Amino acid sequence: MRGPLALSNRYLGRPVRLQRPAPRSDYFVGCVAEAVALVQQSCPSVLVGVDIGSEEVPGRAVLWREDRVPLAAAVDATPTEPARIVLYERPLEHRASSRAALRELVHRTLVEQLSALTGRSVTDIDPDIDD
Question: 17-40: per-residue pLDDT in tens?
């Protein structure tokens, strides 16, 4: 049904432009950037030497069970590589009931991964999060 609407038609005499919605991943990347900014404000030292990124889904290299899909992964630093945290877009989106819930879940997941990576408590990293 999209084809005839997008082609030249007798009403307009020219093709109709189809608008593409902003990719869902753009919103997710914005949520990650916002979460990093919030942590930067509350505890900037915890981000030193840590690379933060996102992937759509966990890859084969990530160990996970069939019944529980990871929301994120933290990898310790090596002599040649910095520590890394990867947030997984699809599992986080699946667990969130709304865009606001997704934003909160991304932030909470980032803080929990930073806590696991650095050994600092969640409330040290973000005092506004309930333990």
Answer: 656 655 667 899 999 999 999 999
